[in-house]
Write a structure and sequence with these properties.
The complex is a heterodimer of chains A (750) and B (644). Chain A has 750 residues and is of the alpha/beta class. Chain A has 23 helices and 28 strands. In chain B, the strands form 11 sheets. Chain B has a 5-stranded parallel sheet with strand order 8-7-6-16-27, covered by helices on one side. A 5-stranded parallel sheet of chain B has the order 18-25-19-20-21. Classes of the chains: A alpha/beta (750), B alpha/beta (644). At the A-B interface, helix 1, strand 4, helix 2, helix 21 and helix 23 of A face helix 2, helix 3, helix 6, helix 7 and helix 13 of B.
Chain lengths: 750, 644
């Protein structure tokens, strides 16, 4: 590209009101705009607001037409649920990389019918309702979302599943149990566990040790829940679908946990499998290591009955070296798995003369492939690890089976096997969203066998799951989605764009009032912040617009201004510019909804500076809302009531006010993600950490030519100021784009 | 005919007061109604899809939506209907929110009223006719009225985009009030640093026409196709000859207060208004010039070595085609004489804020020295909210900038006079912008006292000013001596604002500032298509917000220019030529000059591009010859009949 050439397309980062307005202005002028929004829907914070000050326009009513216009504009390329990950180049020609996050729902097929929602067993706090309401793991953030397409909130592998040697989808079956879908839960268990009954009784359940619920009270009884499935679900005889029959034969030496899983997996892949066991029955340690009151023989029998039905040859009372020679094995079988247990190693060493042993005397194997030093011979379970647990042994059987399969099909044994081992999940659960119970003792690792949970009890227990992974991968939505829009295999997509100019409209984060612990936010449920109050007031909110605190209408309400603003103790010296007025509005709405409430607003200065603001402030005061100039110092609880303690700075007196509800007018912060953006778009920031404008009092220009600011990313501001600035950013962007058009480089964008 | 009726819950906005299910049931029984439904948010995508699907599957040919005001969502539904293949004018909205649920409490009554409104809409829609929208071309030029900072910023954006701009300024000077201000808050930048690069750039664009001493005399037409009459006043000095030698000034016998220096200095009748005058040339103030008033004097012409003085010059009017218009006329400072208790005009050491700015400025009457009667003041009082937040003078609003400019002025005063005792009397300190709170803190740290409470009176005792006030924090009255009192005068709508308002048919708010089309989402547009607002004419704002808004207005104003065409609403008047008697009554009543009598046929003609569909002609016509499409008499009668 030559000097001065401008690509006549624009990028707008952020799909809140600022980004939408900027994009619409540019698009209306005939230029192509790429609008990137990280959330599943555009609309930003404005969509969360109930009414807007001072005219009390319904926020949703005025923003939704804009959202629809934005999505429908022929010149706007809307990239929702996407993030900018890289920018390079300069004014006129910026190269931009955008990561389109997988929705796991094909937006071209999804009709937003919501059939999936009814089936989804996972309930999570709804971010749009500030966690005051709940949503499913498959969701649209709010009814007017644009695009109106579902998204599956898949956060990763939950700790329970990560820590399971077999990576059993514990969250999935627990979630299904919570919905009473026991049959579906057992089917899900069977996807990873060939012998769920055995593991329901004797699993060492490392999952429960990792369960995040420990941080609240005690872990979910994951293993017991599995047992409920095994004990209560009446399922027809299990049949396993086999892949096409393969000619190769595999010998499994030892019919214990490792050998059985190995045999199961290999047979399922179509190999001809023979299990040799020196005992008179299958099971190895399962049968002779556990007394029947720990592991009922009926459970073993039921689980193992599948072995013969699958067509696995079982040769009992057959000892290698005695009843069948090493030579015979080698001649008749293409691969061998040694699952002889720790006690069988000595004996097998005598038969397999060149077999290498480790320092502990166990069979030495490659830690990834479980291949021994003898080609085609693999080993696993206690024979390798020494005495271990059933589930660990089974996992080794599975791993060896995969190696054998690759060995027999001539594939690389090692590639892509990183996640076979247990690993620790990096997922964090936002625990304080939940009610904190009393701590209870950690679970016993081995507990005496009892009655087991009843179904009702199990459903209640399952509801305790915190759904760390978001979506539990249970697959129910996919079953019920008629247009077949669900695609669990969807991958993220990287899009490369070339644009002439960029508008940054990334908005703000609300201040987290937990940083002011004296106000008790997070400790007292009836201390809420401004954005939570918006959702409480909103007709589309969790209470359908009723002001209900723990189911009751508050009688005494205190609003506190400047929480996280004008406050150097939390590092925010600046004024957040909107809190005075949104508080006035909320006080007015509250007065409207609860005419008999006592409403007090504690302020420092009332900054009612915009058009019609002062008039509105006056109106609110006339509605018997008491404004007190005060320094609130503390909120504590007394006899079940909140008490706000402070100093009335006009009276020069301390006071204590009782309250059923305290609303903290939390300020506006720069977005956490803005630091990420700055890594590849080095915008300057000012002392308030918002993006810094260029010189000459122009709040739109930045220090980077061709990059402009719109909305709260530049500093807190109200809606009209944001809209004006967004149009302004569009103006400056178009002065550049017009050059591209006039020179006729790429022609006029359609 | 098949009518579909859709009742919106609007969350609980409607559903809480109106029993929507019963309204649906009622609507189903109305004539021609094929289907009636209710939905939580009709305006949402699924709500619209509901209508679109019904049009397709049930072959509906008329749609009624009972929801909010048509001002809100009529375009939304018309678009939806159009996309389903139906003429968008086969549609009617029943406003059961603003006109029903929001203003009633009794559920039963409100439900009954909603039913009537729906029946009324159904009756009207069944008489609707299809209408076609037309397009008109757009003149690629913008008129910007006012060359203050907002007008300049907007003009630059437009010129940069390659369009013609006419930047029209009434005064001889560019830059407006900004040039009178010395430094800005909170960064203490010199205003010239903001303005000078812009003025330099202004000169670069051949498509940017700067017209000072000019004003708008008439506006006709409609968006994309305005015809603007500009009145250009004579300067009586030929700028191409004037060398700014200043000889004329020396001989001019007339001394009048210098407006640029807020009257703190005198100027002559022939003068150079300010360093920001455009063009940089002397001019003669005809109101005070003795020659122009009485034919006496004329010394300037005699002395001018270049022969630049032209007393014979007359003004002229030109008419230019204009696509869109930006109004950026700025503000007038509040006249503190309206607060006589503060003694302004009575005591020379009570100053308004803009006067104080001139004192601070190195280009001002004292070259930037802070002198009162030749002496440095020892005690200074700054009083906030003079003419703002004050119903006694009719200004309830906050002027948005005074807290911060006072902080800045106090700061600068303290720099000049470190020993002086400086007090700021305030109601609330509104330090809301970027870096403002930090600056406010800095000012306090400088030893400037903030006292809550606005003085009730300023009077003189023994030659000293006494400020009497109530300290609201101490709860005590006090009296203190002051050598200088600076009144933080607010911003008011310009005195001459009504003139332009009438010309452009703008609306004004209760604060008398021009009214935007929507307080939230259309802060730059006006109710008239193609006319936009920038800067303080819309309401007080600081420099950053003004610049931001000016860029925004430029964006809005250039949209039709980039698009090259505008849509024309088809709801216009039309004449039944058989009935029209050519009496011409309607022509007189038409606000938009859309009607012209055919002089030969004596029949009224409608210019559809100009007609706004207001219906005034309709109501005036004695023989019902002129009607309004979409609001024909039979349509309205049908609508009214259902509201019995």
């Amino acid at each position: 590209m030559g000097e001065g050439v401008v690509i006549p397309e624009a990028l707008v980062i952020g799909g809140g009101i600022a980004g939408m307005q900027a994009a619409l202005d540019i698009a209306d002028k005939g230029f192509k705009v790429h609008l990137v929004e990280k959330d599943p829907s555009i609309g930003g914070h404005m969509a969360q607001l109930d009414k807007t000050f001072p005219t009390l326009d319904c926020s949703a009513c005025i923003i939704t037409p804009k959202m629809v216009d934005t999505a429908n504009h022929p010149n706007i390329d809307l990239l929702s649920y996407s993030e900018v990950i890289h920018i390079e180049g300069k004014v006129g020609d910026f190269k931009v990389l955008i990561r389109k996050k997988p929705r796991y729902v094909d937006v071209t097929k999804c009709t937003a019918c919501a059939d999936c929602v009814a089936q989804c067993p996972v309930t999570l706090p709804n971010e749009f309702d500030m966690g005051l309401g709940m949503r499913k793991a498959i969701y649209i953030p709010f009814p007017q979302a644009v695009p109106l397409k579902y998204t599956i909130d898949r956060r990763g592998v939950p700790p329970c599943r990560a820590s399971c040697p077999l990576h059993c989808n514990a969250q999935g079956y627990v979630a299904l149990i919570s919905q009473g879908k026991l049959k579906e839960a057992l089917a899900l268990v069977r996807k990873t566990l060939p012998f769920p009954g055995i593991l329901a009784y004797v699993c060492s359940h490392p999952c429960e040790r990792e369960c995040k619920r420990i941080e609240v009270d005690r872990p979910v009884r994951i293993c017991d829940l599995k047992r409920v499935l095994v004990d209560h679900v009446e399922e027809p005889e299990v049949t396993i679908d086999l892949l096409e029959e393969k000619p190769q034969r595999v010998a499994i030496i030892g019919g214990g946990p490792a050998g059985l899983v190995s045999a199961f997996d290999l047979r399922r892949k179509g190999y001809r499998v023979t299990i040799f066991d020196s005992h008179g029955e299958l099971g190895g340690l399962l049968t002779h290591g556990f007394p029947s009151y720990r592991l009922p023989r009926e459970v073993i029998r039921r689980d193992l009955s599948v072995i013969e039905r699958m067509g696995i040859e079982v040769r009992l009372n057959t000892e290698v070296g005695r009843d069948i020679s090493f030579q015979e094995l080698k001649e008749n079988y293409n691969a061998i798995f040694l699952g002889v247990g720790s006690s069988g190693v000595e004996r097998i060493g005598e038969v397999f003369k060149d077999l290498k042993r480790n320092r502990m005397g166990m069979i030495q194997v490659d830690p990834i492939t479980l291949e021994t030093n003898l080609k085609g011979i693999f080993a696993g379970g206690d024979a390798v690890m020494g005495p271990s647990s059933i589930v660990e042994a089974m996992a080794q059987g599975r791993r060896a089976a995969l190696s054998i399969d690759r060995y027999l099909s001539g594939e690389d044994l090692r590639s892509g096997r990183e996640f076979e081992e247990r690993f620790s999940s990096s997922l964090k659960c936002d625990l304080p969203q939940r009610k904190r119970d009393e701590r209870e003792a950690l679970p016993h690792l081995i507990k005496p066998i009892g009655e087991g949970l009843g179904i009702e009890e199990a459903i209640e227990e399952a509801k305790r799951c915190l759904s760390c992974g978001g979506c539990s991968d249970c697959g129910e939505c996919a079953k019920y989605c008629q247009p077949r829009a669900i695609d669990y295999d969807m991958k993220e997509e990287i899009v490369e764009l070339h644009v002439g100019t960029i508008i940054v409209a990334t908005g703000f984060d609300p201040f987290d009032p937990k940083k002011k612990p004296e106000f008790g936010y997070g400790r007292y449920p009836n201390v809420i912040h401004g954005l939570e109050m918006e959702r409480l007031c909103s007709a589309s909110g969790p209470t359908k617009g009723e002001i209900l605190i723990q189911g009751k209408k508050p009688r005494e309400v205190v609003f506190i201004h400047c929480v996280g603003s004008r406050d150097k103790t939390v590092g925010n010296e600046y004024c957040s510019r909107v809190c005075c007025m949104y508080t006035a509005k909320q006080a007015h709405l509250l007065r409207d909804k609860i005419p008999e409430a006592h409403i007090t607003v504690l302020y420092m200065d009332v900054r009612a500076f915009g058009k019609g603001f002062e008039e509105f402030y006056e109106r609110v005061q006339k509605e018997h809302i008491l404004y007190r100039r005060a320094n609130p110092s503390e909120i504590y609880q007394r006899n079940g009531k909140l008490v706000v303690r402070g100093e009335d700075t006009l009276l020069g007196e301390p006071f204590e006010l009782e309250a059923d509800l305290v609303v903290l007018a939390s300020g506006l912060l720069p977005r956490k993600e803005s630091e990420v953006l700055r890594k590849f778009l080095p915008l300057e920031i000012s002392s308030d950490r918002f993006f810094s404008e260029g010189s000459g009092h122009d709040p739109i220009r930045t220090s980077i030519e061709g990059v402009f600011l719109a909305g709260c990313c530049e500093g807190p501001k109200d809606i009209p100021d944001t809209v004006a600035q967004a149009s302004g950013a569009a103006s400056l962007a178009c002065t550049l784009l017009a050059k591209g058009r006039n020179k006729g480089v790429n022609g006029r964008a359609k | 005919m098949k009518i579909g009726v859709y009742i919106c819950h609007c969350g609980i906005n409607i559903a809480a007061t109106v029993d929507v299910a019963r309204v649906v049931e009622f609507a189903e029984g109305l004539p021609h109604v094929e289907i009636a439904r209710h939905y939580q948010y009709m305006c949402s995508d699924p709500g619209q899809d509901l209508i679109k699907n019904d049009i397709k599957t049930l072959r509906l040919d008329r749609i009624v939506v009972a929801a909010c005001s048509p001002r809100m969502h009529e375009p939304t539904y018309r678009n939806a209907i159009r996309s389903a293949g139906l003429n968008p004018y086969f549609f009617e909205m029943a406003n059961i929110r603003e006109q029903c649920s929001w203003v009633h409490q009794d559920r039963e009554e409100a439900t009954r009223k909603a039913m009537e409104l729906v029946a009324s809409a159904v009756a009207k829609v069944s008489l609707h006719e299809p209408l076609e929208e037309k397009e008109a071309p757009v003149t690629p030029s913008v008129l910007v009225i006012g060359a203050g900072i907002s007008g300049i910023v907007a003009s630059l954006d437009i010129a940069r985009s390659g369009f013609e701009v006419y930047l029209v300024e009434k005064s001889p000077t560019l830059g407006g009030h900004l040039t009178q201000i010395y430094r800005t808050f909170p960064n203490l930048e010199e205003t010239s640093e903001i303005l000078n690069p812009m003025l330099k750039e202004l000169a670069q664009y051949p498509s940017l026409h700067l017209l000072t001493l000019s004003e708008v005399a008439g506006v006709e037409g409609f968006v994309g196709n305005f015809k603007v009459k500009l009145r250009m006043h004579p300067r009586f000095v030929d700028p191409s000859k004037c060398s700014r030698c200043g000889e004329c000034e020396k001989v001019c016998p007339v001394e009048v207060p210098d407006e640029w220096n807020m009257g703190l200095k005198e100027r002559r009748a022939i003068y150079l208004p300010s360093p920001y005058a455009y063009p940089q040339s002397y001019l003669i103030d005809p109101e005070h010039c003795l020659y122009l008033r009485k034919g006496e004097c004329g010394r300037c012409r005699e002395i001018c070595p270049e022969g630049a003085v032209r007393f014979e010059e007359v003004g002229m009017e030109i008419e230019i085609p204009i696509g869109t218009i930006i109004v950026a006329t700025g503000y007038d400072p509040f006249d503190p004489k309206k607060k006589p208790e503060l003694g302004y005009g009575l005591y020379p050491n009570v100053l308004s804020a803009l006067e104080f700015e001139r004192l601070l400025s190195p280009e001002g009457p004292t070259q930037g020295r802070l002198l009162i009667d030749g002496k440095e003041p020892k005690s200074l009082f700054f009083i906030q909210c003079v003419g703002s937040r004050d119903k006694t003078v009719g200004n309830e609003y906050c002027s948005r900038v005074c807290c911060m400019y006072t902080a800045k002025q106090a700061f600068l005063a303290k720099e000049l006079l470190p020993q002086a005792r400086i007090t700021i009397c305030y109601i609330d300190v509104r330090a809301f912008g970027k870096g403002y709170e930090q600056f406010y803190e800095e000012v306090q740290k400088k030893g400037i006292f903030y006292r809550k409470g606005i003085p009730s009176e300023i009077y003189q005792k023994n030659g000293k000013l006494i400020v009497r006030a109530d300290d609201e924090l101490l709860g005590e009255p006090y009296e203190e001596e002051a050598d200088l009192v600076v009144l933080a005068t607010g911003l008011t709508q310009r005195n001459d604002a009504d003139q332009l308002r009438t010309l452009l048919k703008l609306s004004q708010g209760p604060d008398r500032f021009y009214l935007e089309a929507h307080p939230k989402l259309r802060p730059l547009d006006t109710a008239t298509d193609g006319i936009f607002l920038a800067g303080t004419c819309q309401g007080p704002k600081d420099i950053s917000d003004t610049i931001s808004q000016a860029h925004g207005a430029a964006s809005r104003a250039t949209i039709p220019l980039f698009a090259g065409k505008v849509k024309i609403e088809p709801i216009t008047a039309y004449v039944d030529e058989l009935i029209c008697a050519g009496c011409g009554l309607c022509e007189q009543i038409c606000e938009y000059r859309a009607l012209r009598l055919d002089p030969y046929r004596k029949i009224m003609k409608v210019n559809e591009a100009l007609c706004k569909g207001c219906g005034a002609c309709n109501a005036t016509c004695p023989s019902s010859a002129i009607s309004l499409r979409h609001f024909k008499t039979e349509q309205i009668i049908a609508q009214v009949r259902e509201l019995s």
